[in-house]
Specification:
This protein is an alpha+beta fold and 388 residues long. The chain has helices at residues 7-21, 30-37, 52-62, 109-114, 138-144, 154-157, 160-171, 178-186, 196-208, 212-221, 224-228, 248-256, 262-272, 276-292, 299-308, 311-321, 323-329, 337-342, 350-363, 370-385, and strands spanning 25-28, 43-48, 66-70, 75-80, 83-89, 91-94, 103-106, 124-126, 131-133, 146-147, 175-176. It contains 20 helices and 11 strands. The structure holds cytidine-5'-triphosphate. Pfam families: PolyA_pol, PolyA_pol_RNAbd.
Length: 388
């Protein structure tokens, strides 16, 4: 068994396996780019000129990790401590229809680099030779800070690369090279051809980034939002606010769609095929936002929504509404029906009414802590018993 502490150990091990099996291996893509830029990246892509799954199992025999294999493309992902190592069989790709997934043919490292999006991502480190293979001048572009496609059909083949160009240009403060920029702008309409899953995936990757706000602003300035959605207006305000212990993509997703109308929820679901959690979060967000501006508040439903909704919904409302939101969010109760039962009241519809009263007391600032909620409940129940 081997213990890998860093990338150098991994390179040594790959070299050893390559020598033994005669299957050539290369470290490629993002991790090479980020290593050269001095940016930490624990997602390692390895291309082998041979069967990726076979190579991955040999690697696994040296390491104590987990493996997931993908038969169709003969690739495998190995998880080892903080590393995620994708082992890919070198391949050539043919795009038969724009924006659809390509057909593949197993091939060599050159073809595998030639199928890639940008020159800075088409660098490979040859572990046997100990040198970087740079077929498309990626090193120079990396030095100059330039995003450049390898060929003029790149964005037509795969319009997700439009989002990727924006992500890399913003993340590293790089320029999109002029010809690439023109090709990119010409292909924006082709985003319509992408499946909902692929568009959602790209949007969520953007929302995960530190500079998500800037990226979304660029997406809007290129009119990409108008290609994806019919009438929905995206919000960029507060997209850069950071909270810990919440799912940043979901939180930013809610901030992004903060001003949505009721009918937009179905459109977002259709255009992005969001999962049930995202769908429910959007509905809760819409309901709570509407209630904030409503004179006759539905206390029961607000209480129940706040109780069950995701933390990200509350954080989104808080960041967008400030003190106004605080007022209802601070109503979140710790007392439950079982606490009322423990205080000697048999289950009945009265439970809901009592909890509503505690909730109101909380949003009005009469009580604040969990203990005060119980004390308040006790008083309410005593009054009830006395028939007041
Ligand atoms: N790639 C591509 N076209 C795409 C997606 C990916 O050519 N539409 C290639 C790129 O060479 C990229 C590699 O596949 O480097 C791995 O993709 P991914 O993991 O998405 O990107 P990373 O380069 O690892 O970058 P990031 O830091 O954004 O994850």
């Amino acid at each position: 068994m081997r213990i890998l502490v860093n990338g150098i150990d991994l390179i040594r091990l790959l070299k050893e396996i390559s020598l033994k099996t005669k299957i050539k291996s290369y470290i490629v893509g993002g991790v090479v780019r980020d290593f050269l830029l001095g940016v930490k990246n624990l997602d390692i892509d390895v291309v082998v000129e041979g069967d990726g799954i076979e190579f991955a199992y040999i690697l696994l025999s040296y390491l104590k990790g987990d493996i997931v294999v993908y038969e169709a493309f003969r690739t495998a992902t190995l998880s080892y401590h903080n590393f995620s190592i994708d082992i890919i069989s070198a391949r050539k790709e043919y795009y038969e229809c724009p924006a659809a997934l390509p057909t593949i043919e197993f091939s060599n490292i050159y073809d595998d680099m030639a199928r890639r999006d940008f020159t800075i991502n088409a660098l490979a480190y040859d572990v046997m030779e100990g040198k970087i293979l740079d077929y498309f001048n990626g090193l120079e572009d990396l030095k100059k800070g330039v995003i450049r496609v390898l060929h003029s059909k790149s964005f037509i083949d795969d319009p997700t690369r439009i989002f990727r160009a924006i992500r890399y240009a913003t993340r590293y403060s790089f320029e999109i090279e002029e010809k690439t920029h023109n090709l990119m702008k010409e292909s924006i309409e082709n985003i319509r051809l992408l499946s909902a899953d692929r568009i959602r995936n790209e949007l969520l990757l953007v929302l995960k980034e530190d500079k998500a706000k800037e990226m979304i602003e660029k997406i809007i300035s290129y009119g990409i939002d108008k290609v994806i959605f019919d009438e929905i207006t995206l919000n960029t305000q507060n997209l850069d606010t950071v909270y810990t212990n919440i799912e940043v993509e979901l939180y930013r997703f809610l901030v992004l769609f903060y001003y949505l109308k009721e009918k937009d929820i179905n459109e977002i679901e259709k255009k992005l095929r969001i999962n049930k959690i995202y769908f429910k979060a959007l509905k809760d967000l819409f309901f709570l936002r509407e209630q904030l501006n409503c004179q006759n508040k539905n206390i029961r439903k607000i209480r129940e929504t706040i109780d069950k909704t995701k933390e990200e919904v509350l954080r989104a409302i808080e960041v967008m509404e400030g003190e106004k939101a605080e007022k209802i969010i601070k109503g979140k109760l710790t007392v439950r029906g079982k606490d009322i039962k423990n205080l000697g009241l048999p289950p009945s519809p009265l439970y809901g009414e009592l909890l509503d009263k505690v909730f109101e007391a909380k949003i009005n600032g009469i009580i604040t802590t969990g203990e005060e909620e119980i004390e308040f409940l006790k008083r309410l129940i005593e009054k009830l018993k006395k028939g007041e």
